[in-house]
Amino acid sequence: MSETAPTRLLRLLSLLQMHKDWTGTELAARLDVTTRTIRRDVDRLRELGYPVHAVLGPLGGYRLGPGASLPPLLLDDDEAVAVTLGLQTNTTGNIADIEEASLRALTKVEQVLPTRLRYRVDALRGAIVAMPPRYDPGPPVDVDSLTAISAAIRTAETLRFDYRSHTGDETRRTVEPHRIAHWSHRWYLVGWDTVRSDWRTFRIDRMSLRTPNGRRFTHRPSPDGDVVAYLRRTMDFAVRPYQCVVRVHAPAEEFAGRVEGIVTPIDERTCRLEMGSDSYAVVALVIGMLDVEFEVESPPELVTHIQSLVGRFTRATNRK
């Protein structure tokens, strides 16, 4: 290979990655070489493990497709830094076996980083502080479970699994899987429960998949028209350590967009508000800002906290 051949190979690979099909003439014109040189360079890429396929037709051509094995990766500087930091983050995740695999891959990548990039990565590591999770991330999720669920979503196959609730109760579920969500260091499945005829969200670490999968189904539109909006509306209550329920003496529509929580109409003049928060103080503050009559349904600790606030405010107003 000539001195400029490695650079030309990189340019050829870059072209194949950005365009679906290229004729040999087009590639030769782009690289200012002959079509014979293009054929030799394509053969060289194939020897390196890149699946460059020949395109049939009057003009012929080339296409870069998926391969059976992983060829050498050609990354620019920013891509190399991004991959290194991403692998570093995965070494502290909560997916079983991923941490070890990420550490092995990180070691391999760092061994081939040029000095200038190793300096950039070390500088970023020294500047970034990894915060521990705010809540217990729970048991790690098995990567095989994530793979099986994602495959069922893609092939539209109903999942059958045993599920353990937060209280330890065991139930058997049949669910049309819709999406996998990663929220507050936990993994969730959003799906349509065929027995309850409603959308449900399940902690994946509490699921025990049964095989084989169930019948095929047709994917439904996302709940709320947007699965992220659905999760924001329903999951914020579930993942917070302080979960409170109050009956509010006001129509449910008055709170649309005013409060983070689940608002359920009871009748035309009252509704139920379910809120999750980091403390009872925040819940009391939000309820107070609504400026409406209400009763606490649960938990008793919220009642105790509000009574404490009432006593404190009363003493503050009685001082001379």
**Rg from Cα:** 28 Å
Q: List how many beta strands DSSP finds.
A: 13
What is the mean predicted local confidence, pLDDT? 84
Annotation field: number of helices: 10
Q: What composes the largest sheet?
A: 5 strands, antiparallel
Name the helicity range.
40-55%
User: What's the oligomerization state?
Assistant: single chain
Low-confidence stretches: none
Q: What's the shape?
A: elongated
Describe this structure in words.
The protein has 320 residues and is α+β, with helices and mostly antiparallel strands. It is 42% helix and 22% strand. The strands form 4 sheets. Strands 8-7-6-5-9 form a 5-stranded antiparallel sheet. It has a 4-stranded antiparallel sheet with strand order 11-12-10-13. α2 crosses α3 and α4 crosses α6 (115-127).
Quick structural overview:
The protein is 42% helix and 22% strand. It is of the alpha+beta class and 320 residues long.
What order do the helices and strands come in, and which of them pair?
Blueprint (H helix, E strand, L loop, with lengths): L4 H14 L5 H8 L3 H13 L4 E3 L7 E3 L12 H14 L4 E2 L1 H15 L2 H13 L13 E2 H13 L3 E6 L5 E14 L2 E8 L4 E6 L3 E4 L16 H13 L2 E7 L13 E4 L5 E7 L2 H11 L3 E5 L1 H19 L2
Parallel strand pairs: 3-4
Antiparallel strand pairs: 1-2, 5-6, 5-9, 6-7, 7-8, 10-12, 10-13, 11-12
